[in-house]
Amino acid sequence: MPPMFRALEQRNYRLWALADLVSVTGTWMQVIALNWLVLSRTGSASAVGGAILLQALPTLLLGSWAGSLADRFPARRILVITQGAHALLSVGMAVLAAGHAPLSWVFALTFGAGLVGVFDGPALGRFGSQVVGRKDLGNALALGSILSSGGRILGMSLAGVLVAVTGESTLFLINAASFLVVIGAMFAVRPEELHPLATSTPERAGVRAGLRILLRDRTLLTLFALAFVLSSLGRNYQVTMAAMSQGPLGAGAAGYGLLSTVFAVGTVLGGLMAARFRELSVKLLLVAAGATSVLQSVSGAMGGLWTFAAVLVPIAAGAVIIDTTMSTRVQLDTAEDLRGRVVATHGMVAAAAGAVGGPLLGWLCERFGPGHALESAGLVTGVATLVAAGLLMGRPALVRWLPGRSRVAPATPELVEQSPAVPGLTLVTTVPPVTTPAQPAAAQPAVARLATAEV
Q: What kind of architecture, by CATH, is found in domain 3-450?
């Protein structure tokens, strides 16, 4: 099997990847069904936005507690509960869609799905890491982004056909069945081939202990800050593509549909590119962030539909590389017993970025025009990338980038764990982590959702 598909050599990952594809497809079918149900009953796009907010709100409020829970208890036990709860909620949505129940009930179940999803994500992150192990996690995340894009396209396509033929209820029931597939995959994997992760000791367990440790990690804080800026101003292309189609490009709804398809193709290409890298490093992250920032500014000056679409392809590919590399680094460069809390915090950053970035980009498009909004946002993300490079790399590390300079051996993970002030680049190392419980090594379903790409 080619190296870019090396994670698929593992039987457990093949099962988990198949379950992921089924679940992501079902999830997007439910997204379309829910949006259409709310829109058809209210005629209000704001009501659809409210439903989306209800799903995202629990992540911002309870993400830290969910991560702490995932670090203390077996991931599979949590996932059986959460996936089963998701299935029941989807069945409930199907019943409401078939009848004439008040819309407030639909919103209540929507909030319930978001509440269950808070506890679902960190546990999925830990279990996905156990399926593939440290060595192939980056490759699995890259392949997962391809599955996520494929499931998104497949789910939206099937939903567009079925919602007109069978109604919304069928889509909710299909999604309910997809959660049962994930539960089946968890019990079908071979336990002896899993890669155990350390769980938190009492003194390192809990939200406060995790927060104290994370706040001392300058590298992780810098990565999260960069992720927030890139996600809020460099990922909300659903907003800017619509504004460009309606405004400067004059392409209308048909053009927006074309750009959405082009963007999806770009995400698949980005996943394939990320899978080819043996190591997803901080250097790769910064290069991809800088390149996409420049391309984003360039895209704002494009006056034609096809030229804008051509620039959109590498932007979408770069977004996947960034998100996959970010997810890999924040997990592998922190302690294993913090993995759940790190995944939860990453999800909270993504949710906050979406909540802030969407309205902000919308306002910029209305106030200054979509072209200028893209140019300005690209400039801001570019500056943020340069600042992050200075903080993450430091002058000695930057010198090592120059040709003809001797390379300095990176510090071991043990030294980084004991000395949080060490510059972040030393965390990107090929030295195996300590595996003793006293000092261990750090989506959604399956590994695909670990990438948490906001594309």
A: Up-down Bundle (1.20)
Half-sphere exposure of 20 (CA within 13 A, CB side): 30
Output the pTM of the full model.
0.72
Which pLDDT score is estimated for 136? 86
Nearest to 297 by CA among 394, 356, 381, 213: 381
Report the candidate in 316, 310, 302 with the shortest Cα–Cα distance to residue 248: 302
Q: Enter the tokens of residue 19.
A: 């379950």
Nearest 5°: the CA angle 109, 23, 314 is: 110
Domain boundaries, the chain: 3-450
Tens of pLDDT along 5-23? 888 889 999 999 999 999 9
Measured from the Cβ of residue 375, the count of other Cβ atoms closer than 10 Å reads 17
pLDDT digits (tens, 9 = 90+) for 107-133: 999 999 989 988 998 888 888 888 988
- What b-and-e string marks burial along 402-436, b requiring 16 or more CB atoms within 10 Å of the CB? eeeeeeeebbebeebbeeeebbbbbbbbeeebbee
Classify 442 as helix, strand or coil: coil
Rounded to whole angstroms, how far apart are CA atoms 48 and 36? 8
